[in-house]
Structure formats: C-alpha cells, structure tokens
Automatic annotation (TrEMBL):
Family: Belongs to the RUS1 family.
Origin species: Gossypium davidsonii
Ranges of residues in domain Root UVB sensitive protein C-terminal: 449-562
Domain Protein root UVB sensitive/RUS span(s) in chain numbering: 171-402
Domain of life assignment: Eukaryota
InterPro entries: RUS_fam, UVB_sens_C, UVB_sens_RUS_dom
Name of the protein this chain belongs to: Protein root UVB sensitive 1, chloroplastic
GO CC annotation: chloroplast envelope
A biological-process GO annotation: developmental process
Length: 581
C-alpha cells in the first residue's frame, strides 16, 4: 500500500475481554487508529480493514494516502507533525502534542467507533443480547463497547430523536405507568384491576364536582357574601362536622358485614354520599336549619367514608396477584388524587357558572350524580372477588355437585347480586349479561341456601330432647360444627374451636343436604333419625368427609381462595364435653 511507509497504526485494546469463540471475534478485535499527515481540505473518515478474518474500524485522520501524493507540508507549515522512526530533535517536541491529540480523538469519537463497529458487524448476535423484563414489558439491551456496559438497543442517540413526538409520548406513558400502576403491570395484578381503576377514576371526578357544588352551597348557607360574622360561621361548621363524626364511631361495629358483601356495601356508601351532597346543596334554601341539615349530611358522609375505606381493602387484597398489597394501595391513592384534582377543577368551573342559584345547582348535581353512580356500578361489576362468602361458596358447591367441576371466578362474580338480602335492589344490575355457563339449578340453590342459612345458631333452639343432643354430639364429635335442619332453616351450631375452614366445610355439607332434599327426595325425620346409619345427616357428612378435599383442590385450580368462609356468624358457641369410658 502507498500509505504503509508514511503512517504507523496505533492500536488501542478493546475494553471487552477476548473470547475464543468465533462469534465474538469481531467484538474483541482491537481498534486501529491510523494517523497520517493532515491536509487542510481533508476530513476524518472511517474505513474498514480486515485482519485475521475479523473486521475492525480504522480512523484515518487527514487526507491520508492520496495515491502517492506525499506532501510534506501540513496545515502548520513545513514542520507539520507525523509519526516516524527518526528521533530527531526537530520532531521530538511534537510527540506530546501528538499524544494529546490522539487521546482527544479517541475520547470524542468513541461513540462513533462503537456505531461503526455495530454497522460493520451487523446486528448483535443473540448470545450478546440481554432482555430486561418489567411485567409484560421486554426491553432489549446490547453491549456498549465504549463503556463496557449494556444499553437499550433503541436508545436515544441525538437531540432530534429525543424531541420526536413518538419518543416523548413513550416517555410520558412510561412515567404515568410508573406513577399510577403497580410495578410489573399487568402481571403483578389480576385481570379485573384495570377495568375497576378506569371506572373509579371517572367516578372520582364526578364525586369531586358534587363536593365542590355542595361546599359552595354550604358557604352561601352560613351567610358568606352577606356580611355574616366569621366566628359564627366557624362555630356552625364545627358543630356540623362534630355531630357527623359520631356516625363513623357507631358504624364501626358492623365491620364484619363489609367483608361478606363488600360490593353491595360500597354501592350503598356511594348512595349515602350522594344523598349527603344533595342535602348540603339544599342548605341555602333553609339557612335556619343549617346545623341540622349539615349534621345529617355530615353523618352520612362520615358513614360513607368509613364503608369506603373498609371495603377498599377487600378489593385491593384481591388485586394483589403477587402479594404486592401495599403497592396496589399506593397506586390506587395516586389514581384517586388525579381524579380528585380533575374533579375539583371541573367543579370550580361549574360552580362559577351556577353561582348562588339552588335550582341550577340541583340540576347539575342530578346529572353528575347519575354519572357517579353509573361508574360506581360498572366498577363494582368488574371486580372478581376470589374469597368465598355464603352465596359464592353455595354457587361453587352447587355447580360442583351438579357438573363435577368448580365454576370460574368470573362466572360466579357475574352472577352474584349486589344486595343478596334485598332482592328488589338487585334490579339495578338486572340488565347486565347473565351467565350461560352456570346452571339455573345451581343459581336457584345458591339463592335459596343464602336465605335459609343460619350460621351460629343456639343449640337450645334446635333440639328439644336428650336423644337428639346425644345423636348430634356423637355424629359431629370430630367436626368443629353441628349441622341440622329446623323449621326449614339450615342451622349450623358452631363449637368453640370452630375455624373459618370448618364453616366452609359445613356449607359444603349443607349444599349436599339441599341436593338430597331436591333431587333424591330425602326429607328430614328428626335429628336423632337423621343421625342414624342411612339418615340424611349421616349420609351427607360421610360424603363431605370423602369429597371436601377434592372440591377444595378443584376450586383452587381455577383461582378460588379456599382457606375459609367469609361470613358473619352469630356469636353463639358451644363447648361439648365427652365422657371418657
């Protein structure tokens, strides 16, 4: 080559360790910097040389070899620098400058060299690819030859790409997901979490709009803008809230009810909250009843707040598919803050348009309340509870007895009424799609068992003679409960050692009793007769002891939590004492 005598290659070792595998040969080949005299019109170029079957980039600074045109005059005159083997004093002073410039070129062009090497070698081979996984998001990482590290393969390389619309949208989307959704979404939560969150976001906006309208009405009622004394207004406000707080204290003792039927109680809390807002909007029309109306509304809002907080825990516990309970709660609060912020802004704008007109405020409140309640209803219908309360357990067990298979979580939750004890209120959700998988017999059985079940009955109310007591004690001596039928009621007497698992087992036996009654025609003949060999209690208990573990395993295989029954039994317990012979 013509340039071989005029330029000496300077080799810099690659930052990556060498490998003997052929696939990594191109990654470990040293970089070659070829320094040659610089011409004023020349520009740095990158070429590729091949050595030992491995390609590596060459940075040639200056005009380089121009076909034998060996011009000794560089850009700085006749003393232009070059690398040669003569150690003359005239060129020794340029060595430090040459080394400094070489280092500067190496530092400033390392990213270009990495890019050139990537282009030369083509796509990174699969052995050198690392995937970073965050939930369902997979990010491809490739080696960075300059920093001895892995970088995102489609990372931002220049300001134009940084400011591109698609990149900004992607960054904003990732930021929103990090702030509002649990890490690892959607794999870290259950499938119903997103629907619930979206509907809750809309209802949160509507709730805040109603709150702003109600607050404005309260301020007008206490005389704001009419020369009212601030101290009197403050006293009235404190009395209103203070009386309202008592409802929260009184309602706390019903906490177990919220666990059994959280969807219905949560919808009731929303109705209560909207009723409280409506009363507050009416206060300007009755300013002399401000404290009374405000106290009633405050009591309703306090009760609604308590129920909402209690039931929220049930929902979030079901969403935490990876035991990330705290994170699901934190993200839910963040979503709520965004909804509230938007709602407050819209409420303020609407309140400015309405002014002090009570009629316009009530009309606007009616529209917002409809949106609020509809979104609440849709959000609760999207929730798929995995725990077993009496209704869901009866539906699962009845379907298992009829078909031999445990029904899915989605089918059972779609069929469960929001208010099992108040049938006419269930018309709110009558237009939703009904399940076609669950049999009508199982649905009817679950509804009837829910009404006939009496969990925690008194023993003295279901037996009238010693023979019945001894027969029941002897049959259920190894169980944590006693089950019998009395006046059409399925009465479950709980022993002192009874656990939620025992209550779930009693409900399975109860479903089998119902099946014997409906399909086999075996009626009750009294407690003592039913406990004998061949009696309905003896037959059902024997079946339960044999099949209960099987139905638990089948139910768990489709996602049900079978560690116990979520119920609110009566506080009655017994402690049987068996005489030792």
């Amino acid at each position: 080559m013509a340039c071989a005598s005029s330029c000496r290659p300077l080799f810099l070792s690659s930052p990556f360790p060498s490998s003997s595998s052929p696939s990594s040969c191109s990654l470990t080949t040293p970089f070659l910097f070829c320094l040659s005299p610089i011409n004023p019109s020349s520009k740095p170029i990158i070429t590729t040389l091949t050595a030992n079957s491995g390609s590596f980039p060459v940075l040639s600074v200056g005009g380089g070899c121009d076909g034998g045109n060996n011009n000794d005059d560089g850009p700085f005159g006749s003393d232009s620098w070059r690398w040669n083997d003569d150690s003359s004093s005239s060129s020794s002073h340029s060595y430090p400058f040459l080394l400094f410039l070489s280092s500067l070129l190496a530092c400033s062009s390392h990213s270009q060299l990495s890019s050139a090497l990537a282009r030369t070698n083509g796509e990174t081979e699969e052995d050198d690819v690392v995937w970073e996984v965050r939930g369902s998001k997979w990010t491809k990482l490739i080696p960075d030859f300059s920093d001895d590290a892995f970088v995102v393969s489609n990372g931002i390389s220049n300001l134009t790409k940084l400011l591109s619309l698609s990149t900004l949208w992607g960054q904003c989307r990732d930021l929103v997901m990090r702030l509002l959704l649990p890490e690892g979404f959607p794999d870290s939560v259950t499938s119903d979490y997103l629907d619930y969150s979206l509907w809750r976001g809309v209802q949160g906006v509507a709730s805040q709009v109603s709150g702003v309208l109600a607050t404005q009405a309260l301020l007008y009622a206490v005389g704001l803008g009419k020369g009212a004394i601030p101290t009197a207004a403050a006293i009235n406000w404190v009395l209103k809230d203070g009386i309202g707080y008592l409802s929260k204290i009184m309602l706390s003792k019903y906490g177990r009810h919220f666990d059994v039927n959280p969807k219905g109680w949560r919808l009731f809390a929303d109705l209560l909250e909207n009723a409280a807002f409506g009363l507050e909007i009416l206060t300007p029309s009755f300013p002399h009843l401000f404290v009374l109306i405000g106290a009633i509304a405050g009591a309703g809002r306090s009760a609604a707040t308590l129920i909402q907080a209690a039931t929220r825990s049930c929902f979030y516990a079901g969403f935490a598919a990876q035991r990330n309970f705290a994170e699901v709660i934190a993200k839910g609060e963040a979503q709520g803050m965004i909804s509230k912020s938007i709602g407050i802004g819209l409420g303020i704008a609407l309140a400015n348009c309405i002014g002090s007109s009570t009629s316009f405020a009530l009309a606007s409140f009616g529209v917002v309340t409809w949106i609020h309640m509809y979104c609440n209803l849709k959000s609760y219908q999207s929730i798929q509870l995995r725990t077993l309360n009496p209704y869901r357990a009866s539906l699962v067990f009845s379907e298992y007895l009829l078909s031999g298979q445990a029904p899915s979580i989605k089918e059972v939750n779609a069929e469960e009424p929001l208010f099992p004890a108040i049938p006419f209120l269930n018309l709110l959700s009558a237009n939703r799609e009904r399940s076609v998988v669950l049999s009508s017999e199982a649905k009817q059985a679950a509804s009837e068992i829910e009404l006939r079940l009496q969990l925690g009955s008194k023993l003295s109310d279901i037996v009238s003679n010693k023979e019945d007591v001894l027969a029941l004690f002897n049959l259920y001596k190894d169980e944590g409960y006693i089950l019998t039928e009395q006046e059409g009621k399925f009465c479950v007497v709980l022993k002192e050692s009874c656990s939620p698992q025992d209550m779930l087992k009693s409900l399975f036996q109860l479903n089998y009793l119902y099946w014997l009654e409906r399909n086999a025609g075996i009626e009750s003949r009294g407690a003592s007769n039913d406990c004998r060999q061949g009696g309905r209690l003896q037959i059902s208990l024997e079946y339960v002891q044999r099949e209960f573990n099987h139905v638990k395993i089948d139910s768990e295989s489709v996602g049900w939590v079978t560690d116990g029954l979520i119920a609110r039994p009566l506080p009655n317990r017994i402690r049987p004492v068996y005489a030792t012979v």
